[in-house]
Amino acid sequence: MGAAMANAFARRLRKNATEAERPLWARLRRQRLDGNRFRRQVPIAGFIADFACHSAKLIIELDGGQHANKVDQDCRRAATIEREGYRVIRFWNNDVFENLEGVLERIREALPEPPS
After folding, report:
1. Which of 12, 34, 37, 63 is deepest in the core (most CB within 10 A)?
2. Tell me, what CATH number does 34's domain have?
């Protein structure tokens, strides 16, 4: 996928956020998570990452039920993104719905310690 095409696709995805993306984005946007800047629907390594914190080199992916049958594909995707220097963490949509604070805590744990 070319850069212009990826950017256009990412723009469409941002306009049509999933039910699970909305509450997580509300907590990540505008540096609400300990001052870390996240972006959503970010083209990286030929894929569109759900959320990215470039300064921490962290990608957050949310998976719905359709991903239960795509484990190999998701692993290859994560490996490609990780070759770009990013760490990928995944959550099921239900994790966001049922335990948003727990999801945020795992994200905090994956972020580097802020400078003192």
Report:
1. 63
2. 3.40.960.10
